[in-house]
Design goal:
20 helices, 6 domains, alpha+beta
């Protein structure tokens, strides 16, 4: 929301010495988010004055109209000057704005006397765009014309007077990011009220300056009705007849809209936009000649369609809120008007509409149709239900003043609204803030924002101290008591004030956030992290220490990503929960695997030139089963759920296991002066799994497997206690191509809940033997179908306690071992903790290992 400081000053009696930045600082302290303060026209300087056109000479023989004008700028500026100008929208006797040599216009653009078309052009006659007053390309500003300051402007315009201050060329504009709970601040009215409260000065409500019952002529009223009370509770129509659609918007109106970031369209549209910015009440103007029958607010009916102002024909939803006449829908209420009833350059009879629509209905409507307008932004945040008759009356008044014609009486459909009453102790806000806030000040703050406050006269207590930091006592309904009960009725423009916590927030922000204590509350002792939380942190540290980078992806996926993973239709990972209101139509499902998010992150990094990646993520996946029952119950906040309620919650929720996943692309070890690099392979993915399970203190078994999205011949099942807890290996080439990853990319996904310990394992340090190692190498010939891990496990079990480590160091396939077989060479390291092993002991342990491997895997010792 952009607000010019001069507009704020019209309704808030701000000190004259306060700049836009000063006001912004006060508003920030009051809780508003002022993003920037634009100081427009600060680069404008030099003589920019009001001139009177004395004579115009048309230059002939040129491809475009060029005029040599004699403009009187006053004796103090050299009298009459000759100026070349290409605009033709002014005549002799018009007052114009002249930038004389030495002036600097926005840009910056320096003005100097120049020779052109055989004449010396001694200055420049300015347009609104050249002065930074708007985007109008229609030509020169004619100050005494209808598009300038008005036909009667000649009476107060003085030749040679400074035009910068007269036109408001220099202006401070505050750009405020309005949060959803502060919809009233999407208006000059709301921000001016906040500024007045922040400075403790008088506020003049612009809505109080309008008489809604005033009419200027006998224009025939237009009938209004509300069919659906849930869609709208106030609907106002006011006719304007005999309007001149050719009248331009005056300069002051166009300039203010330009400062607020609103494009000037036509007089009728500009007036409705102007009042939307000033009051926060969106309005709409219909061409009366295109209306038929009574105008009714209702919900859409099955099969109805509407072509909106953006030339899109929209299929309407039964929950859409519509404005209709006898012909059907004529406007998507609160969002966008219909094309059929649009006003144009021939519209002389208008019907101005103002309403108070259901905020939630407008918000859903806009999202359904993918439309967000300035009007819908205000309606969905809540507008003042008392404003429609006032804003419609003010719009009719401006249209008559600026465009001629007559305005008739308003027609109104007004349904009763239940007022909100909040009862709260006066001392509550102080208790929340952590320091005393006298009740009298609480009452002053609440009345200042527009609340009606009644004090329970029977409350007991003592009188509060005087105002804060030397301020005078704020006026209130009397001497409030510290523990008095306050009955507070929020104003109509504050739909966000619904309970006592909202009032606490208002009091504390006006008291000043800087007064809040900075002492943090003490955490209760004896809690700490759960074993599973400590395990997850250890896993994260272990992977980060091994060179992986943690990422956090959104927990949403789409059917296209499941297709890209190559999952069969029967794969349980395709059974995903669908969101009712997804962030993206392409990702409407809750993830059943971590891989899509990780692979998308890898693709995004690779597209930006980072191809060597080692990424990991830990998080929940959502695996629905057939056991989910009724929807989860809605619980209160007064206390924890009961055992029965907890059971209902658990029954309604899907299984949500905690997982860890890893993705590897490119080089694992970079190349350099030390030699060639080494690419990441399936071995690194499996080693990452070993790092994870080592932190849990459990044993991991690796088996060959075939599981999407991994390559069938390069996929390992990860087994803990005879249960498959995950998979690792090289991704399938089709999956790699679908995600635009480098060839031979690898991944791991592991379910942590499958082996999560109830208590944290206590590591036991093995004693370090000081005796020498005895090494024995064995080469075992096995069938190609036998995994090397099974042979290693058998050798380990057969060797007994003397075996310190086993390592596979060579794999051979060829004629020496025969077809369908391979040779696996292992290095066995033996050591005793208390003695030096003899040759006999080492040989016996080696033979026992070979025998066990032969028994379990059919391996034979290679000769």
């Amino acid at each position: 929301m952009r607000v010019p400081l001069s507009w704020l000053r019209e309704y808030a009696d701000l000190p004259a010495d306060q700049s836009g930045r000063d006001v912004a600082e006060r508003l920030i302290r009051a809780g508003l988010e002022v993003e920037t303060v634009d100081r427009l026209g600060i680069d404008v300087s030099g003589p920019i004055v009001i001139g009177l056109v004395r004579d115009i000479e048309e230059l002939t023989g040129l491809k475009k109209p060029i005029r040599f004008c004699q403009v009187d700028v006053g004796q103090e500026h050299g009298g009459t000057r000759g100026i070349i100008c290409g605009a033709i929208n002014f005549a002799v006797g018009d007052n114009v704005v002249v930038a004389l040599p030495g002036a600097i216009l926005p840009g910056p653009f320096a003005i100097a006397a120049r020779k052109a078309y055989g004449f010396i052009s001694d200055g420049m006659i300015c347009s609104a765009r050249e002065l930074g007053l708007g985007d109008d390309h229609s030509g020169i500003i004619v100050l005494n014309g209808p598009a300038g300051l008005g036909a009667d402007a000649s009476s107060f315009l003085h030749i040679g007077a400074d035009a910068i201050d007269l036109l408001g060329v220099r202006e401070d504009v505050l750009d405020i990011a309005v949060t959803p709970d502060r919809g009233y601040c999407l208006s000059v009215r709301g921000i001016a009220r906040e500024a007045a409260i922040a400075y403790g000065v008088a506020f003049q409500d612009p809505a109080a300056l309008v008489d809604p019952s005033a009419v200027s002529g006998p224009a025939e009223p237009y009938d209004a009705a509300i069919e659906d009370p849930t869609a709208c509770d106030r609907f106002v129509l006011r006719p304007v007849s005999g309007f001149d659609p050719q009248r331009p918007s005056p300069l002051w109106l166009r300039h203010r809209l330009h400062l607020c970031g609103v494009r000037s369209v036509s007089l009728a549209v500009d007036v409705t936009n102007y009042l939307m910015v000033e009051y926060g009440q969106p309005l709409h103007a219909f061409d009366r000649s295109r209306l038929t029958g009574q105008i009714v607010v209702r919900r859409a009916r099955t099969g109805e369609r509407l072509e909106t102002l953006d030339h899109v024909v929209r299929d309407l939803h039964p929950e859409d809120i519509l404005i209709t006449d006898s012909s059907g829908p004529i406007s998507l209420a609160g969002t966008m008007g219909g094309l059929h009833t649009e006003i144009d350059s021939r519209s002389t009879d208008l019907v101005i509409e103002g309403a108070h629509f259901d905020a939630l209905g407008i918000a859903k409507e806009g999202r359904r149709h993918g439309v967000s307008s300035e009007a819908s932004r205000r309606f969905e945040r809540g507008v003042d239900p008392e404003l429609p008759p006032v804003a419609v009356a003010r719009a009719a008044q401006l249209l008559v003043e600026l465009g001629g014609g007559m305005s008739g009486p308003a027609t109104e459909a007004n349904l009763p609204r239940e007022p909100v009453m909040i009862t709260v102790p006066a001392s509550r806000a102080g208790r929340v803030a952590g320091h005393d806030i006298p009740a009298e000040r609480v009452v002053a703050y609440l009345t200042g924002i527009g609340c009606t406050v009644e004090i329970d006269a029977t409350s007991a207590g003592k009188n509060p101290p005087a105002g804060r930091r030397g301020e005078p006592d704020a006026p209130g309904p009397g001497a409030a008591e510290l523990d008095a009960q306050l009955r507070v009725t929020p104003p109509s423009w504050r739909p966000d004030l619904t309970d006592s916590a909202d009032l606490d927030e208002e009091v504390i922000r006006l008291e000043g956030y800087e007064t809040l204590s900075t002492v943090l509350p003490m955490a209760p002792a004896g809690r700490g992290l759960l074993p599973r939380q400590r395990l997850r942190r250890r896993i994260g540290r272990a992977l980060a220490g091994a060179g992986y980078v943690e990422v956090l992806a959104f927990p949403f996926i789409g059917p296209g990503e499941l297709d890209a993973l190559g999952l069969d239709e029967s794969d349980p990972r395709r059974q995903a929960l669908r969101l009712l209101n997804p962030l993206s139509k392409e990702q409407p499902l809750l993830r059943t695997t971590l891989l899509p998010g990780l692979l998308a992150t890898a693709r995004r990094n690779i597209s930006r030139g980072f191809a060597d990646l080692a990424l990991f993520e830990t998080g929940l996946v959502f695996r629905p089963t057939d056991k989910e029952g009724d929807p989860a119950p809605l619980l209160g906040v007064a206390g924890p759920p009961t055992a029965e309620q907890q059971g209902e919650l658990d029954a309604a929720l899907p299984r949500q296991p905690w997982r860890v996943a890893v993705v590897l692309t490119g080089q694992w070890e970079p190349a350099g002066w030390w030699g060639e690099g080494r690419p990441a392979t399936w071995a690194e993915a499996i080693q990452a799994a070993r790092l994870v399970v080592a932190e849990a203190g459990v044993d991991l078994e690796v088996r060959a497997d075939d599981h999407a999205p991994w390559h069938p011949g390069r996929c390992a099942a990860l087994v803990v206690d005879d249960h498959v807890v995950g998979h690792a290996g090289e991704l399938h080439p089709r999956v790699i191509a679908a995600f635009d990853l480098p060839a031979r990319s690898c991944a791991l996904e592991l379910e942590l809940d499958a082996f999560e310990p109830e208590t944290e394992p206590v590591p036991v340090a093995k004693p370090i033997s000081v005796y020498p190692i005895a090494t024995q190498d064995v080469a075992m010939v096995v069938a190609d179908s036998v995994p090397a891990a099974e042979v290693a496990a058998a050798l380990r079990d057969g060797a007994g306690e003397l075996l310190e480590s086993i390592r596979l160091f060579d794999v051979y396939s060829g004629s020496q071992v025969g077809p369908g077989h391979r040779s696996l060479a292992f290095a066995l390291r033996f050591r005793a903790p208390d003695r030096t092993l003899t040759v006999e002991e080492t040989t016996a342990a080696r033979d026992a290992a070979i025998a066990e491997a032969a028994r379990r895997t059919g391996a034979e010792l290679r000769s």
